[in-house]
Each structure stands twice: as C-alpha cells, then as structure tokens.
Specification:
193 residues, 5 helices, alpha/beta, single chain
C-alpha cells in the first residue's frame, strides 16, 4: 500500500533544499509530497501533476526507487501552453521547467523516453514540434519516436534532436550552474533545424 500525502509547510527541509538546488519553480502542478509505504516507510518527494490526474513523483535522496507514478499516463506534462505555433517537447519534467525563462514557446515534458502517449491531441495543433532528448538516448529513440508519432502528426514539422551536446549535461544542470541562457538554448535549437 502506497499513500501520497501533501506535506505541510516546512515539514521536510530536504524537499525545500532539493527544490532550491534544482531551481524548480513554484507552480500549481508541482507539489511536495510525503510517500508512505505500508504505513511505515516514509520518503519525501516532488509530484509533477499532469492535467489528466497522472502524477510522476521524484523521490529525493533515494537511489533505488527514484520515481513512483500514480494514475494512467495518457498525455504529456504541460509546463506552458500559451497558444504559440511552436511546441517544445522535452525529456523530463525538471528539464522542461528549466526552459520557462529561455524560450517563448509552449513547453511539454515526456514522462520518459520510452513512453509516448497513444493519443497526441495535446500537440497536434502545433505547426512545428521540437522534441529534445538527452544525448545518451538520442540515437536509440530518434527512429522510435518518428515511427510512433509520424502518422498522427502529418500536418506538423517534427524535429527530433538531442538537447545538449554533452552527455554529462542537460537543461537543468546548465540552469542550476547559471550557464543556461536564451542564446545557448537558441544555439542548441539551431542545431536541430
């Protein structure tokens, strides 16, 4: 039995440290949680709440069970939806959140690179869809992504690329080090054209 309980203010200093360290913004769809397993085992984490009720929980200070999920994964994690004609679909919720101040486009996140929802209605409306994954997974997933999404996104220009040209970095790691700038994001994005 696993229960997910919203934490009270200052209940877990470790969550606040993790959020500060990773520069995760305070948004309505990001929630601090206490994870209680069999009424005994307690861990703390951050829940990324999808619009359809699905939750992906990042457990902090845990190596073996880093993620839990609750609900059915049927859509992408929505970071920003302003109605632009361009959409960025990024591997990982924290990486997607890291881009908020750097690109003016709509931003969504993949739950993980092995999971693409069967219904892509969230992103069908975009004229251009830029999918960014980590460099270490790029060659493995590029063709798989094209196969899974090309039939549903015939009207869109789809670009699949790696996010950062360094296997040890991603958008969030650069953002945390204050090395992510709009110019850098645009330079990286220019490589995907």
């Amino acid at each position: 039995k696993i229960d997910f309980v919203t934490t009270k203010e200052n209940e877990c200093i470790e969550i606040d440290k993790y959020i500060k360290k990773r520069k995760i913004p305070n948004l309505p769809n990001v929630e601090k949680l206490k994870i209680v397993i069999n009424d005994i085992y307690v861990k703390f984490g951050i829940s990324f709440n999808y619009n359809n009720g699905f939750k992906k929980i990042r457990v902090i200070n845990e190596n073996k069970y880093r993620y839990f999920s609750s609900g059915k994964y049927e859509e992408f994690y929505e970071v920003r939806n302003t109605g632009s004609d361009v959409c960025y679909l990024v591997e990982g919720e924290i990486n997607a959140l890291s881009l908020l101040d750097f690109i003016p486009y709509d931003i969504y996140a993949l739950h993980n690179v092995n999971s693409i929802p069967s219904n892509l209605c969230q992103i069908k409306k975009y004229g251009k869809i830029v999918i960014k994954v980590d460099l270490d997974k790029y060659t493995t997933v590029k063709n798989l992504f094209y196969q899974k999404i090309s039939q549903q996104l015939k009207e869109s220009e789809v670009i699949i690329d790696y996010a950062v040209n360094d296997i040890n970095e991603d958008y969030n790691s650069l953002f945390v080090k204050d090395e992510l700038t709009r110019e850098l994001v645009e330079q990286i994005n220019a490589n995907s054209q």
